[in-house]
Every structure is written in C-alpha cells, then in structure tokens.
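Quick one:
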Amino acid sequence: MKHPLQILEQYWDFTNFKPLQEDIINSVIEGNDTFALLPTGGGKSLCFQIPALVKDGICIVISPLIALMNDQVTALKERNIKAIALTSSYKYDELSTLLDNCIYGDYKFLYLSPERLQQDIVQERIRQMNVSLIAVDEAHCISQWGNDFRPAYKNITLLRELQPSVNCIALTASAKPEVVVDIVKELDFIDAKIFKKSFYRKNLAYMVFETEDKFYKIQQILKKNKSSSIIYVRNRKSTLELSKALSNLGFASTYYHGGLTTKEKDKHFSNWLNNRVQVMVATNAFGMGIDKPDVKTVIHIDLPESLESYFQEAGRAGRNGDKAFAVILKNKNDQEKVKNQFLSVLPDVDFIKLVYRKLCNYFQIPYGEGAYITNNFNFNIFCKTYEFNSILAYNAILALDRSSVLVLTQQFKRRSTVQVLISNTELFHYIEKTQEISTIIKSILRTYGGIFDQEVKINTLLIADKANTSEELVINTLIKLEKDKIIALDLKKTDAEITFIEPREDDKTINRIAKTIETQNKQKVAHVKDIIGYISDDSICKSQQLLKYFGETDTSPCLICSVCITKTKKALTDTQTNGIEVVISLLQKEALSSRELLEQSTLTETELTKTIQLLLEINAITLTNHNTYKLAY
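Output:
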C-alpha cells in the first residue's frame, strides 16, 4: 500500500498537504465515517481522491453539479486515473454498458448525481461493485437547513444499504453548526470523525463600500491593486457590458457566464488564469474548480443570494497567503434589488403545481406515464404559450428539478447563431430591396452587437417580439438571408431538454414535495435577511460577522476590514494618519529599517517612532530577523 504522500507526489506533483488534509485522509483510510468542512481552496477533492487511490476498488462520488463532475473526471483522466461520470447526457439504454465498465474495467471513480441512485439498474450494479469508499460532495445539499437543499440527496443512504461495510466521507465548504449535525444524522454516520478548519482568513480584508458610482469605484480598486481580479455581476448581459467598458478604459478584461460555449469558456478562463488579462467579469456560474492563488481582489457589484455563496466566492481571493480584498459595493437601491431578484420571484406551491400540469400538457404526457422520457424544450415558447412570467416559471422548473420530479438540461451550446457576411453598406442596400423583412433585420442589428465581426447567439422569440411579428416569420427570414448569402446561420429550435423522473400524477406529485418547497422559500427569505444584515452592520468587524454566522464566536477583530479600518482612523489624529500612510506606502515596495524609513520620508524621528509602535500594536507590520520592517500581509 502506497503512502498518501507518495500518491500526492506521483499524481499531483505536490510535496506537502494543506492543513487538515492529511488527518482527514488518514481517517478515511482507517475506515472511519468522516466529515470534512474545509473553506473554499482547502483542497476537499484530494481528501477522498487520495484514499480511493490507496484502497482497492472503486470510489462512488455523489455530486449535484454536472459541470463539477465533468471537471473532476477530466482532471483525473489527465493524470491517467480512470474515472467516469454518469450524467443525464447518457440515455437509459447506455447505462448498462457504462456500469459494467465500472465493475470490470478497473475504474477508480464513479461520479453520480443523487437522482441516478433512484434507478433500479444503477442500484443493482452498485451491489456488484467492489466499492472502496463513498464520497458525498457538496454535502450541505442533504440538509433542509443548508444552502441549495436537494431532496434527492436523502437517497444517498441507499448506498449505505447497498454497500453496508463501506465507510463514507462528506465534504462541504460552507455549513452552519446545525447543518453539520443534520449531515451526520442524514448520512447515518457511525462514530463520525469531524474535521473543521476555521473560516478565519487573516490575509483577506472584507470590505463593504457605499457608493453611487460603482463603475468609478471599480476603476479605483483595479488601479490600486493591479493583480488578478474577479468581478461578480447579476446577469449575463452585465458580464459582457462591464468587461467591454473596462477594456475601453485600458483594463485587460474578459467575461464568463453559463451561456457561453465550452470553447468560449475555456478560452476566456485560460486568458485570465495565465494572466493575459487582469479582470474576469462573471456571474456566479464562475467558481467551480478555480484554483488561482494570486487573485488580489474579488468584487461584488450586486448582492449575492446568501452569506454561504458570498463566503465561497470571496474566498477565491488571496489563496497564496498575500493580502487580498473581498469587496461588496452597495448603494441605497441594493436592498430592494436583492429582494426583487430572489424573493419576489419565489414560486409558491400552487404556482409550481400549475407549471407542472402545463409542462405535462405541453409535452402531451398522459396521466400515470412519462417517467424517463426526454423532451426537447423551448422555454421561451412554453412561457409565451401559457403567458407565464419567465423568471417565475424558470424558478418553478428549477424547484421541480431540485426536487427530482424532472431534470432540466440547458443546452446553451445549441442556441442559434448568426454572423453577417457582407458589409454594413451592402446590407442596407439589400434591405432597401426587401422591405417586407426590413423590420426583422433591423431588430436583429439593434439587439446584437458585434454581429458583423463574429458569430452571435440570438433569441428568435425576442427578435419576434421586437419586430412585432411571429417567431416562425423570423426563422423563415433567417433561412432566406442564409440562402441569399447575407448571413452565416446555425439554426437550432430548442435550447434545453426536460426529462421527467416520475410518472405524471399532477397535484399528487407536488403534494409530496410541498413542505420542502415551503421550507426552502423560508430559507431564501432568511438568507436575504442575513446578507442585508451583513452589509448594513458597520459596528462589528466584517470577519467576525462571517465567523459568527458559521458558528465561530471566540474571535478577535481582524484589523483589516472596512469596519476595523474606519474605527482605527477615527481613533487617530491627522498626524498619525499621515505617518501610517507614509510608512505603509514605503513598505509596500520593500522591507526597510527605521533609519531607511526616516531617510525616505519627511517624518520626524519622534513621529516615525510613534507610527512604527502603532503599526506593530495593530499587527500591520512585523520586524524581520534583519531588523527591517515589512508589511504583515
């Protein structure tokens, strides 16, 4: 049996474990049911991957996110480790072969969604596997008190019945104390070994700034901190708009959201990861698998939906141990915006029942049938057919997805794309000759920028609305433009798929999950209240507020967050403030002795001595072995 450190060196080229990793790994190897609570960047995946490579057999990994499963499988394969993910992209008749590969093909990792465990064929084959370990990623999903609760996670206990002698490891990056207790109970742990790393990040300064001009404040932050940055925004359109605006001002910037193709995502991510651009503007779709240690700033210009989400996103800054900043920019409109975004569009049970019935009717599914039937789904047409508010309907479908009534697979790569092949002048000459379709062409030009330079994804229903015509006429117009060699067209009539998990039973189906939906709606209200409380409280250290939320109460002020800095400045005279600014500015370049500081500043010896004493007291600077002073972070 190889030592865990040997495997770490062999496959990952690391020579040391991160804090707690080795203890967790040894606990798992010893056969203990183990709970690992490691903040973002703590190296959770190695805590089950290394024990699985030490042991004989296959490790079954439960994860709720297809993208995360695919990322981990790809990373393992790149290291010549055999792994497979049974995502919803595989049809039922393909499962038998893939599961046989797991039994006879010397695979080390089988990634499953919790929904897959409901299938008899999956349960039957798992009984036949030589399972070495059960790993539950994003384990907070099993708790009704956790962020992103998924009822299907409760099915994971089936694995413990199918493989009763196999131990289990549960992992998460964010869980309040009551969630930890719930996870251990739900997974039926025996003599659980719980490892919890403190959420305290001594090098990460949490900042909340009130500003009416967020764009100007972003410029100030990026100019002051010229290293790698992430800016989180609310929607896809904003990623492109803000990235362009920053690029126009000379900041090297790119963008990322869930609607990009895999090729586009890889290109944009690579440019940022390799520091060809400074700034990544992204929605919360950007996060999984990011391990970039030199991120200096993470900026939220819109409020996140929960403190759990914020803590994970903010935690992507400063992983190299250097001082870094997690910034929220707020103004007087933000509280109302976050309520409108996350609370006003919460579907209640009655509305979810309505959407479910209409989905069944839309796909003509008879009562008592429909299980594991996959249907192409045009969401826009569905909403238009039944006159649904699109955001409310989308959230209702997501609730059905989370509750394992159905699976929504969003195939954004299948969206229609258009690129104009002729010049602007030639196009307008063409429009003059074809007046009957000129309104549609103009609507396309006014809606989508860059369409002369590159392929652009389009929404045919949106164009139809703007041109006050039918989607059918828009599609026919696009086909004509392609035939006349005016545009290059890749036309797709669907951008998603829906697979029903349960037979149709109308209200009975939803009644089974009604209490869960109501509980989750209450949780979302509480999450929004918590995030508003966090940005509004300017009396308690920001780090202490976050630590208290996650159950850590015996803490001290961080001295570097926006609250602590404000308090320090209020306690200082103007002379002291000037002295601090001068000394910190000089030490940002290099470590200096007191004599060198005196020579390079206009401070008197007395002023310098008092300033150094104060900075030492608040742990802002440290004295080196060479009797020079350097910044603590």
